Amino acid sequence: MTFPIAPIAASLVSLVLLAGCGHSSDSSSSTSSTPARVYGITISADGATVYAANSGTSVIEAVTVYPPAGGARTIAGATGQPGSTNGNGTSALFNQPNGIAFSNGNLFIADTLNTTIRKLTASSPYTASLYAGVQATTGASNVSPGTFYQPAGIATYTSGSNSTVYIADTYNNLIRSISATGVITTVAGSGSVGSANGIGTAASFRFPWGIAVDPTGTNLYIADHDNHLIRQIVLATGQVNTLAGTGTAGYANLTGTSASFKFPTNVATDGTSVYVSDAGNNAIRQIVIATGVTSTLAGSLSGTAGTADGTGTAATLNVPAGLAYDPANLRLYVTDNDGLSLRYVNLNSGTSTVGAVSTFTGVTF
Questions:
Q1: Three-state DSSP state, 295
Q2: What pLDDT, in 10s, does the model give residues 208-227?
Q3: Selection from 291, 356, 320, 271 nearest residue 12 by Cα
Q4: What is the pLDDT of residue 68?
């Protein structure tokens, strides 16, 4: 599969709100007053389904988006019932999961308050199991099953039938990996709070949140949340670089370390650009990897919050969080958490509909 997408102007980007259905289980409808918060989403290989880790309700949800078919449905977990039970569907329990990534028919989940990594089959009966970590035990051990400290971000690189899992181990200020054979490794980070670039454990982070791997498995990109930075890790060498950001909260569309962000939460990449949910600026930002040129892909240039559909900077967002790039359909899905909605940016510059704003039967988490 190729991953075509050249950087495109914000004026040719559409932000689409998938509006307003309630929750349902995979087989029956249900509603809940439990506050929902979706900070992590992922996309199936065929681009048909978005999966969401709902940290507010401690469930895993699925949305059929291409073509659209109904609202969010719970596939695992019990709404408002945090726990750590393995099992099928709503018999399984999670505790404020945040990150989620799809690979080889499975979902890998950063089960944040359980301090574990869980695995969930992405088809019925949706079987949840422990993949790594020890429930309610914090630490940074790489000895299997390993220990973590409130991991929030997760990404996968798929090579044939093998899946390598990358983890933003947020409260340990580390980037970790789990090989297809289960070997746990610290990729980068000293464990101390900081913003130093360097090789492997010589580098430092400050509450890294979102993480993405490029299509070739060459580089990782990290939303270094409290440093207001976007970081790059060259996997062959372990070299950590600052791709963009000054390290001070701000909103500047400049190049590399002259650009600024405000609490970036998640990242996604197509291999040419890195897309950033710049939560504090209510915007989706785009960084051209080769040059570091940073621009606003969607959202107000003034940081104004809102829920208006529109083209590029005419659209408004309200604390955008989760991101998932869909190479099959050239879309960038976004969760807009204060609006509790799923939205997407149309990246397909090769169609007559690029720039069009659409609303269809959609989603409220």
A1: strand
A2: 999 999 999 999 999 999 99
A3: 356
A4: 82
What would the two tokens of residue 133 be? 């970590």
Q: How far apart are CA 281 and CA 14, in angstroms?
A: 18
Alpha helices (H) along 148-261: none
Name the pLDDT band for 362 (thresholds 50, 70, 90): low
Q: Phi then psi for 77, rounded to 5 degrees? A: 95, 160
Whether the link from the prior residue into 125 is cis, omega within 30° of 0, is yes
Tens digit of each residue's pLDDT (9 = 90 or more) over 248-271: 999 999 999 999 999 999 999 999
Tokens at 223, concatenated: 């939303």
Give the pLDDT of residue 131: 98
Distances (CA, A) of 61 to 76, 182, 201, 363: 7, 26, 35, 11
List, in sequence order, every residue forming a beta bridge with 210; answer none if it has no partner: none
Distance CA(113)–CA(99), nearest Å, equals 12
The pLDDT of 130-139, averaged and rounded, is 96
Asked if the model's pLDDT at residue 8 lies above 50, the reply is no
Mean model confidence pLDDT for the chain: 88
**27 contacts: CB under 8 Å, gap ≥ 6:** none
CB of 100 within 8 A of CB of 52? yes
β-pairing verdict for 14-19 and 360-361: parallel
Q: Is the pLDDT of residue 21 over 80?
A: no
Identify how many contiguous H helices and E strands the chain contains and give both numbers.
Answer: 0, 29
C-alpha span between 19 and 137 (Å, rounded): 39
pLDDT grade, residue 88 (50/70/90)?
very high
* Alpha carbons 246 and 239: distance in angstroms, whole number: 19
CA distance 77 to 92: 5
What is the 3 state secondary structure string of 317-348?
Answer: ECCEEEEEEECCCCEEEEEECCCCEEEEEECC
323 in Cβ contact with 334 (< 8 Å) = yes
State the residue for tokens 């949305």: 63
The strand pairing partners of 233, in sequence order, are: 220, 240
Taking the C-alpha atoms of residue 355 and residue 15, their distance in angstroms, rounded to an integer, is 8
Number of residues that make up the chain: 365
For residue 104, give the 3-state DSSP assignment. coil
Q: How far apart are CA 229 and CA 99, in angstroms?
A: 19
